[in-house]
Amino acid sequence: MEIKYWAATDVGRKRAHNEDNFLVDKNLNLFVVADGMGGHASGEVASAVAVQTIRDVIFAERALLDAFEEDDPGAHIEISTVLEYAVHAACAAIFRKAQQEPEKRGMGTTVVSLMLVGNRGFIAYVGDSRIYLLRNGTVYPLTEDHSLMNELIRSGKLNAEEFAGSPYANFKNAMTRAVGVHEHVEVDILDFEVLPGDSFLLCSDGLYEYLEGSDIAANLALSDIEDIPGRFIDLANCRGGKDNITALVVQLPHLPETTGRARELNFTIETLRRLPLTRQLSYQQLCKIMTASRMRPFERHEVISREGTPGGELSVILEGTIRLSREGREYATMHASQHFGEMDLVDTGDRTLTATALSDGRMLVIERRDFYDILHRDTHLAVKLLWNLNQELSARLLESTDGLLKLRSQLAGQGLDANDFEEVDEVEPDTDETAEITQVKKRGFTEVEIEVDLDPVDEVEVDVEVEDVDEVDVEVEVEDVEEIEVSELEEV
């Protein structure tokens, strides 16, 4: 697949020198933008050290890129880990240089890096520079700012409209993470599927502060890639240009046969977005959920899972219909965009329901171990997921409590209460067959249920003599029986 790219950087209209840097390595399909900080040209040094160190580390591990297998989850982890390590190495290199040169102490930089391997994209980032994806005319942010403003918004303490009038307004551009200020830094990573026709914009805050989503879509869609970065820079300068401006554009060629796959990915993302468990997640966080899940097709009448067997997965129906049952009784019917099994994410017990497909279809499956891995890797995502899970389980508990209260009210209206029900007697006869007789005494009448499970026999006779009984329920489950006789049921 031929990848096109072009980049440009500009000092802007307010700054004396440019502290931004970018790097393109066409052999590694590696693209990096860094926005330095520190003053006295220290920021320029930090950003230059960052982009070069990241490239050097990836180059040293290029054998992993050549051996990458898209169907191997372990290979995805290896590439993500290498890219993450490269940013850690850059952080340590900048910090050491600052310790050796006291005038540069405190210098640091943002980093956004994109590496394309096969049909996967790998991102590692720190700070408030950004990466945008344009797919089928829609712009998606693939990074989240590590800034004070964004942290307050993500934690729910403020919304974007309230920030300007808050005590924190003067610290809008303050970063909560940067590469090189300290010896170590937390790096966010993302592994996602790329498609022919995708376009990417890597940029510093000097550009995106002046952009709307429509600006990004309109310019990334242009056919002459060499014009795009310059157009972005001109737009930012015309609207103020108060900071250094860097734009790096990457385009993948269009292939008509991939249109269906793009629609399928968008459909899956939108289905996840509507789930109670994943509501209010960003596009980037939804990509993490989708990457951690697997697609599972199913056929009509297929038993997908059985009660009493080990569980451990959440299932999201994308297409088709599934019936949930317990002990042979229907519990619920689930359709596309619905899910089941959320309790399996936290409960290590056996399944309590059997899932049977009523039609052909497919579903997205998230296993418990992968769910836990997401929680360990991304604390912000973990908070959202656990909060949503708590809300979902609380709603289920309230629904069950409400149902029990309504039932109690109905019984009270009939002059009954729970103490009027007594279950007694369970009998197993001394024969090869097994029988269960349950007698339930209610005020005013008696109900007898007889359930018989038999191995293959030639003849079965059930002889019941009862008087003054309102109901007798005889249920027989047998195989290869020639004759069944039920006789002498009187006054029933």
Which structural class best describes the helix and strand composition?
alpha+beta
Mean pLDDT: 84
Q: How many domain units?
A: 3
Q: Proportion of β residues? A: 25-35%
Global Rg: 32 Å
CATH superfamily of the largest domain: PPM-type phosphatase domain
Number of helices: 12
The CATH C-level class name of the largest domain = Alpha Beta
How far apart lie the N and C ends?
78 Å
Largest sheet: 6 strands, antiparallel
Question: What is the CATH architecture assignment of the largest domain?
Answer: 4-Layer Sandwich
Identify the overall geometry: elongated
**Quick one: how many beta strands?**
25
CATH fold topology of the largest domain: Phosphatase 2c, domain 1
Percentage of residues in helical conformation: 25-40%
Uncertain runs with pLDDT below 50, 5 residues or more? 423-450, 456-460, 464-470, 480-492
What key phrases describe this protein's structure?
12 helices, alpha+beta, 492 residues, Phosphatase 2c, domain 1, 6-stranded antiparallel beta sheet, 5-stranded antiparallel beta sheet, Jelly Rolls, 32% helix, 3 domains, disordered C terminus, 25 strands
Walkthrough of the structure:
This protein has 492 residues and is of the alpha+beta class. It is built from twelve helices and 25 strands. The protein has three domains: 4-254, 4-Layer Sandwich (Phosphatase 2c, domain 1), CATH 3.60.40.10; 272-396, Jelly Rolls; 421-487, no CATH class. Helix content is 32%, strand content 29%. A hairpin with a 2-residue loop joins strand 5 (111-117) and strand 6. The chain starts with a strand and ends in a 5-residue tail after the last strand.
